[in-house]
Design goal:
Length: 432
């Protein structure tokens, strides 16, 4: 009789090359997340201090090149310019996941993709239902959809958990798919007053970018001016300029030639990722998170339908979407949960996914042109993310003894050969 195929293990031991790549990315994101957290706190304190007027003056100060259509405020430069760097890194991460990571095969992609899609659809649906029930606008349906991986990792660092690498990798892949969804939403739903000539120029620039990659042309002096030109043309074309960043990230080659130590995508990520995580995103947070936290502003989060809908979407929607999506995908594929873990661990991770800081703030600005309404929605994003962080901290800290044991087991290297012993004699029930 033919033997039954072994059941796939959910959140089992990652392949060693995949774990190395994930670990490097997570280290940068964790440090960047702590800087992001500090920037958000500074923004809130500054905006609500006696020097709040100075904060607004700096945020609204305009500079640039008006002749090129680039006379923007400091706040818009950080949102449209610096976040393009963030989305460049997101594009590279997505390309890496599609080529060599968890998304390269349907079998490995099913779990994080289904969890991410449910984690976007359920918050959007709960937002729409809550806002409509209160007679509010449904324009902000996309605000609670994205997970902020840097902020989530900063929370893990602050509460000092030792999550197994498989759970951290799942969170990272979930955020990558979330970012792709956010990019598509921004490109499709927040595009106005198209300038077809400028868009044609941006597309031509991307073609040149692709040709340079195909011809193995190296040198930043080719790519940096071209990238800036593509970004400016995309901005003037009416498409949100961050789309230019992800497009270039997806074009960069992720495979390494025989004479290369790193692929172009890996080199760019190594150089740009620290700037994105440590400078670009925190500066955006500094000028986006400075909202009023007065009693009236916080009251409106619970009384106005739009901010209340954001709060419900982030806390309840993300938790339900990610958890049910993960549970359903595991049952559908007849996979089994890693016996060292429990579904309570997945629930904690699902709650943590409710931290939707950076992209949620960006989409909030795009969804609500009215400054006062946008401020209330931003306050809801901050409050929802803080609530999700606190709830996740409680859930994950309860299991930290288990995580610490698994972490130490994964890191143990008695023969000091640089490869953990578990990869040289892994137990069958730990492999995925």
């Amino acid at each position: 009789m033919p033997q039954a195929r072994p059941r796939k293990t959910v959140f089992g031991l990652l392949p060693w090359p995949e774990r190395q790549a994930i670990a490097e990315s997570l280290r940068t994101e964790t440090v960047g997340g702590l800087v992001l957290l500090a920037a958000a706190v500074v923004a809130l304190v500054w905006a609500n201090s006696p020097w709040g007027g100075t904060y607004e003056s700096i945020r609204d100060f305009h500079f640039g090149i008006p002749a090129l259509g680039l006379d923007l405020s400091v706040g818009h430069w950080t949102a449209d310019g610096l976040l393009a760097v963030f989305f460049l890194v997101a594009g590279i991460e997505l390309k890496r996941e599609l080529v060599v990571g968890e998304l390269r095969t349907p079998a490995t992609a099913a779990l994080p993709v289904i969890a991410a899609l449910c984690g976007m659809a359920v918050p959007a649906a709960l937002y729409a239902l809550t806002a409509a029930a209160g007679g509010g606008s449904t324009d902000g349906w996309a605000v609670p959809m994205a997970t902020d991986i840097a902020f989530a990792l900063a929370v893990l660092a602050v509460i000092s958990t030792h999550l197994p690498s498989a759970l951290r990798a799942f969170l990272l892949t979930l955020a990558v798919v979330d970012d792709l969804g956010a990019i598509l939403i921004i490109a499709v739903f927040f595009t106005t007053d198209l300038n077809l000539w400028a868009l044609a120029g941006a597309f031509a620039g991307l073609v040149v970018f692709h040709v340079l990659q195909r011809l193995r042309i190296r040198g930043w002096w080719w790519y940096v001016p071209l990238g800036v030109a593509i970004w400016a043309l995309m901005y003037n074309g009416g498409v949100h300029a961050t789309v230019a960043g992800v497009a270039m990230g997806l074009i960069l080659r992720t495979t390494r030639d025989a004479d290369e130590e790193q692929s172009p995508a890996a080199r760019v990520s190594h150089l740009v990722h620290p700037f994105s995580a440590g400078v670009a995103v925190p500066l955006f947070a500094l000028f986006a998170a400075g909202v009023s936290v007065s009693g009236d502003a916080l009251t409106r989060v619970f009384t106005d339908p739009e901010p209340l809908a954001v709060l419900v979407g982030l806390i309840a929607g993300k938790t339900l979407g990610v958890f049910l999506g993960t549970y359903g995908a595991a049952r559908f594929t007849r996979a089994r949960l890693n016996p060292d873990l429990a579904w309570a661990d997945v629930l904690g991770l699902a709650v943590l996914a409710g931290i939707g800081f950076t992209v949620a703030l960006l989409i909030g600005e795009l969804s609500f042109p009215d400054a006062v309404q946008a401020e209330h929605v931003k306050a809801a994003v901050l409050l929802g993310s803080l609530t999700a962080a606190l709830l996740a901290s409680v859930l994950l800290r309860r299991r930290n003894r288990v995580y610490r044991r698994l972490f130490e087991e994964e890191e143990r290297d008695d023969d000091a050969d640089g490869i953990p012993d578990i990869y040289q004699g892994a137990r069958p029930d730990r492999t995925g």
